[in-house]
Amino acid sequence: MIKLGAIAMCFNGYTFPSGKRFDSPLGNIGLVQASDIKCSGYLDLSLMIRLESKDAHEKFYLQEGDLVFLGRGCFIAAVVPKLHEPVMIASPLIVIRLHRSDILPAYLSWVLNSQCAKHYFERSAQGTILKAIGIKELVQLDLSVPPVDKQKQIVQVKMLNTQEQLLIQKIQNLKERQLTQALFQMTHQYDQTRTAV
């Protein structure tokens, strides 16, 4: 077992001055906020607000392969995909930047989103009303680092399982729509029968 802090650098997203709006539809810098990370472990960059370069800070720019961690609510991590523009990160998100090439970002994401990690986060979270995990607690997380080929296998199995769950959900949604249509049709036929009588 090894501590997360031994394999990665962690830092907080940028905290904007309160009461001041920086979003600009014509800005050329994307900004990742807490609302952009989904509890499924997906980082949605499609709805990012925009910043003008004068309001951006390069120290907080994301890099491909970084992990973005939301340390409150559902305690979730997501891998940053290939970026086609500068993207900055805002607090309360935390950036996890690996400094070991033998650890796959997707594997680390799986570890951070596992039930074992969530139990640790729930036990270690600070606060009374809104429980939160900060960098101090995050870097103390213990994790196993198997060989890269094993990491790839784990990531592949997880990906297949996710695809299976999405397919099951789509089938369930389709069944529910079909059932609803059938019930409405029965109701319509009953109304027509009563009208005819």
Write up this protein.
36% of the residues lie in helices and 16% in strands. By secondary structure, it is of the alpha+beta class. The protein folds into two domains: 144 residues, DNA methylase specificity domains (Adenine-n6-DNA-methyltransferase TaqI, Chain A, domain 2, Alpha-Beta Complex); 52 residues. Strand 5 and strand 6 form a beta hairpin. The longest helix is centred in the last third of the chain and has 49 residues. The protein is globular, with a radius of gyration of 22 Å.
Q: Specify the structural class.
A: alpha+beta
For the largest sheet, list the strands in their spatial order: 2-8-5-6
CATH superfamily of the largest domain: DNA methylase specificity domains
Distance between the termini: 77 Å
Give the overall silhouette.
Answer: globular
What is the succession of H and E elements?
A: EEEEEEEEHHHEH
Q: Tell me the β content.
A: 15-25%
Task: Based on the model shown, name its key terms.
single chain; 197 residues; alpha+beta; Adenine-n6-DNA-methyltransferase TaqI, Chain A, domain 2; 2 domains; four-stranded antiparallel sheet; three-stranded mixed sheet; 16% strand; globular
Question: How would you summarize this macromolecular structure in one to three sentences?
Answer:
The protein is built from 4 helices and 9 strands. By secondary structure, the protein is an alpha+beta fold. It folds into 2 domains: 144 residues, Adenine-n6-DNA-methyltransferase TaqI, Chain A, domain 2 (Alpha-Beta Complex); 52 residues.
